[in-house]
Write a structure and sequence with these properties.
Layout lengths: L2 H8 L15 H12 L3 E11 L2 E8 L2 E6 L8 H5 L5 E10 L4 E5 H15 L5 E9 L3 E5 L4 E5 L20 E10 L4 E5 H5 L15 E10 L2 E7 L2 E5 L12 E10 L4 E9 L1
Parallel strand pairs: 3-5, 13-15
Antiparallel strand pairs: 1-2, 1-4, 2-3, 4-5, 6-7, 6-9, 7-8, 9-10, 11-12, 11-14, 12-13, 14-15
Length: 273
């Protein structure tokens, strides 16, 4: 007796049309579609394996595994590749083996295609999104669509930033303003602080000479203490005579001078909270 007939015998009211049996694997459907149409996919790097004497990044779409040989990753060595593990990457499918359940891909080719599209779409003055892929104390590197942009610490905020690693982490999405585009070299300059807007000179009226305000210590240098009063606005105070402050301390400062033209506030710490 056929299995379908057996089910009809055993289960009253059994309707085969209500049992959905699908043989379509959605992840493999994506792989086939991307290969056929030369489109770009995105997935996380979940490992590093040696395949056919080549170091490869492993990307996964559900249970489907893909391999990106080191020469097609866009990085120079395994150390750099290791720093990308866990991150989402773009790739184009080069070929596949359905029986083995694997495919090979190229991140480098995907980035080149994405960059060619991006450079045609963006304009100077436009506000776009940049996704952080690297950060150290003084610089952020981020992707704006196949194009890597380098953002120095001075372009992150109008206020004082002591260490970018305290403010930004890999995977953060930053709103940035496009400042300059070189079509030929695909070099783009962007600025998060210009996207956020300059708090000066509007903030000058909020911090008048002789008045006192609560702020947070944002940095300590040999020449003084920076105190953040609001996003993008920091005052510079001299060191306390009998007490040290550290980054993160909440303090009360008295404004000694506000210079809207120079975008500077000088202050004196009157109390550590």
């Amino acid at each position: 007796m056929a299995a379908e007939n057996l089910m009809q015998v055993l289960i009253e009211g059994f309707d085969p049309s209500k049992v959905q049996e699908t043989e379509v694997d959605e992840n493999w459907k994506k792989v086939f579609g991307a290969y056929q149409n030369q489109t770009i996919l995105q997935a996380p790097i979940t490992g590093i394996e040696k395949q056919l004497d080549m170091q490869c990044a492993v990307v996964t779409l559900g249970t489907v595994r893909g391999y990106i040989p080191l020469e097609f990753t866009g990085v120079e060595n395994v150390r750099q590749l290791r720093s990308m593990t866990g991150q989402m990457v773009l790739f184009k499918v080069l070929n596949y083996d359905r029986e083995e359940g694997i495919f090979t891909a190229s991140r480098k080719s995907a980035i080149e295609q994405a960059a060619a599209i991006t450079i045609k779409k963006i304009d100077v003055g436009q506000i776009i999104v940049a996704v952080v892929n690297y950060v150290n104390q003084t610089q952020v590197r981020a992707d704006i669509g196949g194009i890597e942009v380098k953002i120095p610490i001075e372009e992150m905020s109008y206020g004082w930033i002591d260490d970018l690693m305290d403010k930004v982490k890999v995977g953060d999405h930053l709103k940035v303003k496009v400042k300059d585009i070189d079509q030929e070299s695909q070099h783009v300059k962007v600025s998060p602080k210009e996207a956020a807007g300059n708090p000066w000179p509007a903030c000058a009226g909020r911090y008048q000479k002789g008045n006192e305000y609560v702020g947070t210590v944002s940095g300590v240098r040999e020449y003084g203490v920076f105190v953040n009063l609001e996003p993008g606005v920091d005052s510079l105070s001299r060191h306390l005579k009998f007490e040290d402050v550290k980054k993160g301390d909440r303090v009360l400062v008295r404004v000694l001078d506000t210079n809207a033209k120079k975008q500077q506030i000088r202050s004196r710490i009157t109390r550590v909270l």
